[in-house]
Sequence to fold (245 residues):
Amino acid sequence: MIFTILTLFPNLFSSPLQESIIKRAVEKGLIEFNILNIRDFAVDIHRTCDDSPYGGGPGMVMKIEPISRTMEYVEHSAGRRPKFVLLTPQGRLFDQGTAERLARNPHLCLICGRYEGVDERVLTLVDEEISIGDYVLSGGEVPALVLIDAISRHVPGVLGNEQSSIDESFKEHLLEYPQYTRPDVFEDMEVPSVLLSGNHEEIRRWRRREAIKKTILKRPDLMERFVPAREDQGIIKKVMEELSE
Ligand code: SAM
Fold:
């Protein structure tokens, strides 16, 4: 999968894309990054990429021409149109389902805004607008890294153990079950004995129950979208009884 990033601050990407899972995925040829400086595509000799807003007001707005020219270059050099995604706090909220869906694209082009954002006409050039949360950051670079990290986990081969992404939180709209590792006792806190039992079916059922319990306690909003299997209905009833005691 190819990620092309359009930014005014390419250096922000150097270290985060050269560590850990992403680094290994690049080395294995599973993902590839092209980072383009929008300023290189500015049309005037001063390489201007921003200007004051029409109608007045504070700050600067990113101009459409350099962005449009960079997008044309990306499409032309790739030989086909990638999916163009604009990072913006006004976009659709990013979630695990979106990460999975976007991972099916062979080529994603992420456009990072800065200043007061981009000229509104840029919206007509892109395929999607995505926000990573209801808060305003200074630029689209951190959101782009959030997307890259979450999406890459769904690219086959990127995670060493494919099961890791199958059980993770938000799959089926449930949080993941609690995880423990050695030691089995820390101060007075013990690892649940079922996890040391070696009984795989009991462990599976315990994890399912704990995932449901955790979700009810921490993120009851997710339960509205969770479709319980027959086994889960009994678990939900029991958990609700336990919680009301
Ligand atoms: N004036 C804009 C507004 O109120 O909607 C905010 C501009 S913000 C300071 C600059 C850039 O940061 C945006 O163009 C966008 O690319 C990025 N950005 C900021 N917050 C974001 C978020 N929550 N999700 C995605 N991108 C964000």
